[in-house]
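Dear colleague,

Following up on yesterday's call, I've attached the two folding results inline so they're easy to grep. Please treat them as preliminary; we haven't cross-checked anything against experimental data yet. The first protein's sequence and structure tokens come first.
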Amino acid sequence: MKQTLLQQFTTLFVVIDPVGLIPVFLALAGRLDDKQRARISVKAVLVSGVLLLGFMVLGQVLLNSLGIGMDSFKIAGGIILFIIALRMVLYDTHTGWGGEEGGKSEGDMAIFPLAMPMIAGPASIMAVMVLSDSNRNSIPDLMATGFLVIVMLTVTWLCLRLAEPILKLLKRDGTDVLSRIMGLILAALSVENIVAGIRGLITGG
């Protein structure tokens, strides 16, 4: 069953979690001036965009070359996404980066940990590969998914650029609650992927 554009957008929004990135971004770059933060946010989004769109286009080729079926990948990806969802719901997902990366340069900070693994991490890479299953989706479907990826990255860039006012508006507790709600949504979406993968293996497609 093809996922609707709304389902795809929801999946991308949840796995990338642009609002949840705000405390991490400020912990890493909060002491820098606005121009430096602007450069970091642009570079992080561009690098992660190249990675996500690259996996969207070439991911199926990679799986085929390894002899891995998309249904098997959906099951494996769903399990991993479910684990990530549990972590979002049960643990504090916004800590662990700030004190460790303080000595990094702008470029290093933009690539790691912002571009990878925070934006283009295992969850989002698996998500775009599952959503862009070229065996079942037409070229217009793939173009629509690619457009949604670009839209989602634009939303992420806006959240990073407006990090301080958004954090003041939501406060830390607000971002934590929102992250846990998105974790619940991601858990449900991951179960859907697992069920779809199992159904595909049983029916042969």
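Below is the second protein, in the same order (sequence, then structure):
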Amino acid sequence: MATFVLVHGGMHGGWCYKPLAQLLRAEGHEVHCPTLTGSGERSHLRHPGITLETHIEDVCNLLFYEDLHDVYLAGHSYGGMVIIGVADRALGRVGHLVFLDASHPKDGEALTDVAPGMMGMAGKFKKTIDSCEVVELPEDIGRPNFGFTDDDLWAFAGPRLTPQMWSCFTSKLSLNNEEAVRALPRTSINCTETLAKRPPELVHRATEADHVFEIDTGHALMLSETRKVADMLLEVVAKEAAAR
């Protein structure tokens, strides 16, 4: 049995992994889907002091208090920033990194550095809510950006998207054990459309992994192609188990 910790991206929450978690649990695996501070059902906790470091601490605390080890730590989109930071702080609890159409940062980089095109677009929709600078994409931008082409899927996801703290996107990642983090086994599951939008000088980061997959679907792949993502993760777990 494998243990998965699935970290969501910007504007989402742990809710976005519910269908994927059900499939993984049905195969006997343990799955945790934390919601980062200020997002989803924890959006009422939003405050101006939230940064990338807050979210790294959220997940590190989960690993400690649930006493999790050898974790398949997955991050979607902005969640790639978070899981790299968590691996740095809790290296002994992370066994494998999974990037779900995610950012691939290095020490000293922010999401605005590794995804300048998407962040430039998002920055146009900044607003202030309760003294917090946030991004809230309008439906005609957010829906296609996340790939919610199916009406039923949008009816589920749309009302659950929450404004995202802009400070999380501009926070610089600070690593103490970057070499050790880079040595962890990793899997990248990329969306075809996103690959085409990545900065040419950074696109190689999305394919530098032990296991690389590509899905022709929208950015929120865990919702639009849940079965395919689950099968890819199960394949990786099986291969890793066979290699031991």
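For the second protein, one point worth flagging: The radius of gyration is 17 Å.

Best wishes,
A.L.
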